[in-house]
Q: What sequence folds into this?
């Protein structure tokens, strides 16, 4: 265990900071749901950031850091699947990459070049052309789209399916982590400035405690997402995705409560994080799906867990 | 950034596990009926002496005081394994975690020579005299007085909810030497001093754990004063910062959760509702684990530790609560004699959000220092 960033990771963090800094604010004239930017896409393509997981000095943890940091901007960009899942797809799958579950509309499907179709326990990979997909209007703050009927792809073998599912969980957790940080920061800023009853809202203990709890949850999500990327362990991926979704449900609610009517307007950027969170909460079977995954990988191992007591092992051995 | 244990860390954990395996009686969980019982205190003195002999009691202390200057990870791995095992060191974990290190920092040479070696040898138990009937979270309002008269202090007052007081040899006591927040001092008071009366308070935590301690004109010499008069706030802050992530509660909680899930699986009662709640609790424990590891890592790298320690503590409180509630809802028989270990976990879990500063105090600190929210008007 050593959480100090390496020199290479420090360099990555500062480069990401520069890119994210250029896309930190919502354009004042934008009053929509999905804020996208061709310039952001270009900056990431030009810097070859979509391949950082394959660079040994950075690896998947570098990619998770990038996903987390870039998700904090108000811009929705297809980053997480490209950075964290695409390296595990067969061949050189073209990006953008999107996910379709149960035939529902999915994020970035319109315009995607690779679509992962989840059906039951299997995953089909579809390499799409623009005519294969269509955009869908949505409340989610992502460009949403659907796959047209009759489009089919190649089924992934079972082993690869498990690996891709695992990295979908890591991508989901890392992106939620960045969105949670941004939602907490935005809410803290609001309740520090907004005055009611003659003082800032943030001085009321009822709100302070709830925000502090949200901050602790968000911090935990970040730890678990980074760990899951670093260890490539399916149990860690399941735990990260569950904790991310569970914390997102709570924090999205709290942030809107604290911004109240201000957060209902499209002038304020809060929805650009919370309505991305809502889309991510539902993916991969929601909390229920992740709970099953935790049960499979943490509770179905026949062991008493990482803190099993040695004298219990001794007693079992004697039985 | 590295999330795997290195070989030395893995090997140290194995050594600790092997030690536990060799030295804990098989009926350990049935015998340990509460952390403050006479049986536990007697057992802990024998167990800690064996730990000391094996170089496993205070490996992170300086060599001068019986340690080997091991890094903070060693101390934390040790603490994790001990807590996961139900803390066979009993109240002596406090010596190792914060009383010893606090004396090393603030104690006089004479105090260090008197008090530290018995701690390093595992043959002494301390209690902390902080809370009072009218001073819990608002510790600065405490009323126990230490009046100076020549080279002596006369201590009068009452402490309450004092863990281990019934068996302790020495009390790490906060008492008022003058008015105001800066008028509080720390005294190291032998519990056999005339004028001290200890009464056990029946509690949810287990037999003999918490107490009332009365100080009726207890005379101590000025050599009992730790640091300078009025320095208690500095000293207590250091002590509490060491204590805040001192107990790896998540380790016992994870073990309890896996045990409860195992019982449900064997009974074919691990259905969708239980699965989701178990996943929630397990993920919260993992988050608490890495919050605590972050603090250990900061210590190791000499980085400043602020409200991150409070966040780590709060994260642990949430995890403990989820596991305890899981057991109550899905394995309630554990609290009626069905499983001594799960019962012990439940008894200890209630303490998580209360001892060492209530969870709500942690939230206030996180709100102000970590989030930068404006303070509440007073």
A:
């Amino acid at each position: 265990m050593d959480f100090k960033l390496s020199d290479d990771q420090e360099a990555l963090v500062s480069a990401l900071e520069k890119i994210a800094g250029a896309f930190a604010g919502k354009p004042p004239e934008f009053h929509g749901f999905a804020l996208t930017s061709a310039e952001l896409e270009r900056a990431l393509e030009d810097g070859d950031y979509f391949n950082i997981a394959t660079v040994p000095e950075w690896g998947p943890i570098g990619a998770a850091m990038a996903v987390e940091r870039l998700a904090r901007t108000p811009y929705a960009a297809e980053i997480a699947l490209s950075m964290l899942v695409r390296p595990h797809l067969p061949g050189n799958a073209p990006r953008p990459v999107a996910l379709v579950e149960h035939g529902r509309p999915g994020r970035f499907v319109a315009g995607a070049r690779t679509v992962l179709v989840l059906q039951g326990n299997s995953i089909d990979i579809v390499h799409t052309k623009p005519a294969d997909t269509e955009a869908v209007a949505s409340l989610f703050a992502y460009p949403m789209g659907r796959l047209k009927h009759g489009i089919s792809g190649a089924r992934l073998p079972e082993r690869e399916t498990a690996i891709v599912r695992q990295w979908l969980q890591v991508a989901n957790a890392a992106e939620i982590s960045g969105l949670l940080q941004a939602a907490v920061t935005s809410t803290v800023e609001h309740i520090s400035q907004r005055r009611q009853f003659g003082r800032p809202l943030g001085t009321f203990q009822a709100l302070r405690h709830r925000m502090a709890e949200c901050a602790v949850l968000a911090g935990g999500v970040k730890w678990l997402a980074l760990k899951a990327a670093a260890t490539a362990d399916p149990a860690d991926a399941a735990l990260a995705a569950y904790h991310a979704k569970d914390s997102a449900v709570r924090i999205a609610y709290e942030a809107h409560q604290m911004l109240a009517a201000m957060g209902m307007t499209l002038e304020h950027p809060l929805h650009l994080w919370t309505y991305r969170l809502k889309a991510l909460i539902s993916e991969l079977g929601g909390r229920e799906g992740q709970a099953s995954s935790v049960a499979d990988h943490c509770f179905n191992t026949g062991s008493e867990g990482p803190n099993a007591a040695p004298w219990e092992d001794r007693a079992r051995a004697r039985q | 950034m590295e999330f795997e244990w290195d070989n030395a860390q893995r090997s140290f954990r194995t050594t600790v596990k092997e030690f536990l395996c060799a030295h804990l009686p098989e009926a350990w969980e049935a015998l340990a009926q509460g952390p403050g019982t006479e049986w536990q205190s007697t057992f802990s003195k024998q167990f800690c002496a064996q730990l000391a002999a094996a170089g496993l009691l205070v490996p992170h202390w300086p060599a001068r005081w019986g340690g080997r200057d091991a890094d903070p990870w060693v101390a934390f791995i040790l603490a994790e394994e001990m807590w996961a095992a139900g803390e066979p060191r009993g109240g002596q974990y406090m010596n190792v975690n914060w009383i010893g290190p606090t004396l090393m920092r603030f104690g006089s040479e004479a105090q260090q020579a008197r008090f530290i070696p018995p701690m390093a040898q595992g043959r002494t138990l301390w209690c902390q005299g902080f809370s009072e009937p009218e001073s819990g979270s608002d510790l600065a309002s405490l009323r126990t007085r230490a009046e100076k008269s020549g080279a002596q202090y006369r201590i009068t007052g009452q402490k309450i909810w004092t863990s281990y007081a019934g068996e302790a040899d020495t009390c790490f006591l906060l008492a008022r030497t003058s008015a105001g927040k800066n008028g509080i001092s720390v005294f190291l008071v032998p519990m056999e001093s005339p004028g001290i009366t200890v009464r056990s308070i029946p509690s949810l935590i287990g037999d003999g754990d918490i107490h009332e301690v009365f100080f009726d004109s207890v005379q101590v010499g000025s050599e009992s004063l730790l640091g300078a008069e009025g320095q208690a706030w500095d000293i207590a802050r250091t002590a509490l910062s060491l204590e805040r992530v001192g107990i790896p509660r998540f380790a016992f909680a994870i073990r309890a959760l896996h045990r409860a899930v195992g019982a449900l699986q064997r009974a074919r009662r691990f259905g969708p509702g239980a699965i989701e709640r178990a996943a929630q609790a397990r993920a919260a424990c993992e988050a608490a684990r890495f919050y605590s590891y972050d603090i250990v890592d900061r210590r190791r790298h000499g980085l400043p530790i602020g409200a991150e320690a409070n966040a780590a503590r709060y994260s642990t409180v949430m995890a403990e609560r989820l596991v305890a509630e899981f057991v109550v809802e899905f394995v309630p028989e554990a609290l009626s004699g069905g499983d001594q270990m799960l019962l012990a976990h439940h008894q200890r879990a209630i303490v998580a959000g209360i001892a060492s500063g209530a969870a709500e105090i942690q939230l206030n600190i996180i709100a102000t220092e970590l989030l930068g929210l404006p303070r509440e008007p007073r």
Remarks:
- Chain B touches chain A through 68 residues (CB under 8 Å).
- DSSP finds twelve helices and eight strands in chain B.
- The longest strand of chain B covers residues 152-163.
